[in-house]
Known about the structure:
Elements (H helix, E strand, L loop, with lengths): L2 H18 L5 H12 L3 H4 L1 H23 L2 H19 L5 H28 L6 H57 L17 H31 L6 H25 L1 H21 L4 H30 L4 H8 L1 H16 L1
Helix pairs in contact: 1-6, 1-7, 2-7, 4-6, 4-12, 4-13, 5-6, 5-7, 6-7, 6-12, 7-9, 7-11, 8-11, 8-13, 9-10, 9-11, 10-11, 11-12
Amino acid sequence: MKKSTITMYVLIGTMLMLFLGIVYSYSMFRLEIELVYNVNSVSSAIPYMTVLFFYSLFMAIGGILYSRYNTLIIGISGVVFITLGFLLASVSDSIFTISLTYGVLVGTGIGLLYGLPLRVVSILGHKKVGILTGITLVGFGLSPLLFAPFIGGLLKNVGLSKTFIVLAMGYLILTLPIVWILSKRDTMPKIKQKLSYPVLQQKQFYVVYFLFFIVTFIGLTFIGFTGNIGKELIGLKSVAIFISIFAIFNGIGRPLFGYINDKIGFTKAAIISFVSILFASILHYLIPNNIVVFIISFVVFYLNFGGWLSLAPSATISLFGKEDFSKNYGLMFTAYGLGAIFGNLSSGYI
């Protein structure tokens, strides 16, 4: 395939990921939800945990569906779930219904669409799948840089309900053409035989799964603590600018570790990741009140969290092949869902 064609599909996939990464902008809704529905910070965390859980769950289910059924129909279903979720959220009257609409429906839609760009990138015929996957996933990590100020402006000017309506219409109009283009490029044959998971019989799967879970758990726990540590230990009046900077490194981590994986392999890339996390943790523990150490350590945490969203799919392809990638990575991605749940619960508890 021509280099220009590969570049086009990677950019289109990155654009879709940019829209799907709105899941990381929930903090912009959170304060408004607390005010509108008169709930505390514990209750306002429920929609976020719900959207992360259903996003990871339907990433796994979507992997099965893409490998067996019409790609375009599954992609359109994802857009419909997101649109319907935001529309129903606009008329929600409690934190429970917000959890069902934003959490369940939007999370389901994001999960169904997340696997589409990765599936297409994996069959473009380029030998450096890791770096292409990483570039595609940059959009998901950098999404808060675009959506956080946009959502903040909408909330200030039109309120929570109309913000949800604007997002619903925006997703319907902007993501449908992208889904159509990517779906037409999915030429991978569909599986007709009975569903099976031979990957579950391989020890390497459980090793990668455990490592993915640990990094997600660590990453989301530290992400949940960013504001607290910045204000309470470092004494910052506002950490918003630092969160934006860290989000950039979350995005950079994806192509960076994709490149490292292509160059030296998954095992060495994973070792580099965990050693750097250990170094940053010890450094932050020994010197907890220093702003320079705060920046360095959290850059490392965010960089690695983003990096594993590139390492995990790259390892899935290299270890278990491209043919069942959607199904296998969907199963692998449940580690992210478990890490998200336990990471958020542990940060709140601690």
